Amino acid sequence: MFGKTLGALPPSSAVLLDRLAVMEIELVAADFALRSCTSEDLAGGANRALIGEEVIQFLEAAPLGERRWRLSGLLRGRGGTEHRAVLGADARSPFVLLDDRPNALDPDIVGSAGMLAAIGLADTDPVLAPIANAGLSRTPLAPVHPRRFRLPAGGMTLAWTRRARGAWRWTDGADVPLVEDSESYEIGVGAPDRPDLGWQVSEPTLALSPATLENLRRDHSGKPLWVRQIGSFARSQPLLLLTID
User: Fold this and answer.
1) What pLDDT was estimated at residue 105?
2) Check: CATH 3.30.980.10 for 144-243?
């Protein structure tokens, strides 16, 4: 089930359910119908939709006629797309309702192709469509919950919490599955695409000695210190650990 947004989707911190948030969409067919859900259903993954490159969820779906629907009670930045929620989305962005029945495509067949072709049994010509969000499902999720601990000798320990692709539930008493071939993190100072210096560790913590902290404050004051997970196929979005001061 798909369509387009009728207005721009404003930026969001993607932290809490916004019961007052409203957006309108237009579906491509009159017989397409959306449904509302409860908060419990929402927590279980109901009413997920892809808008541009951001996954959202919605509580209420109200028909407006002429294939138009008003969605309200939005939960933004789902499925590790919180970095897209911060940017928002333009009007006329693609809307795709997501369910639990995706069709897996053989990567050996798709390869590095940028387009897909679909053809019906009675059609003579295929319909071509670009592959959107290529590689997104194989990219690690950004770490969360940055923490810092000052040590008695003047040093500092930085820590964070790992997430995993496909592991959307925070189950008590169980570790988040690794999913990747190995656990590895890149920590850097400055711009993530061109860091001034960095470290690589195999656990979600980094100890900074007093001398290292002094050098960072002297040479890199005001710059971000961040971490991102190194996955089997890609690196995650960075998580800001602190701004050096």
Assistant:
1) 75
2) no
Residue percentage of the chain with pLDDT more than 70:
96
Q: Token pair for residue 101? A: 């029945």
**Residue 235: DSSP 8-state:** B
For 229, the enclosing helix (H) or strand (E) is strand 224-229
What letter does residue 211 receive in the DSSP assignment? H
Query: Helix count (H) and strand count (E) of the chain?
Result: 4, 15
**Nearest in space to 25 (alpha carbons), one of 89, 78, 71:** 71
Strands (E), 68-184: 68-78, 94-98, 115-118, 127-130, 144-150, 156-161
Decide: helix, strand or coil at residue 166: coil
- Lookup result for tokens 């002094």: 214
pLDDT computed for residue 169 by the predictor:
67
Q: Residues 6 or more apart from 65 whose CB is under 8 A from it? A: none
Give the residue ranges of the chain where pLDDT is below 70: 111-112, 167-172
The Cα angle at residue 179 between residues 233 and 158, in degrees rounded to 5: 85
Contacts of 104 (CB under 8 A, 6+ apart): none
Q: What is the pLDDT of residues 7-63, one digit of tens each?
A: 999 999 888 888 889 999 999 999 999 999 999 999 888 999 999 989 999 999 999
E-assigned strands of 41-114? Answer: 48-51, 54-65, 68-78, 94-98
Please give the model's pTM, rounded to 2 decimal places: 0.79
Q: Whole-angstrom Cα distance, residue 195 to residue 189?
A: 5
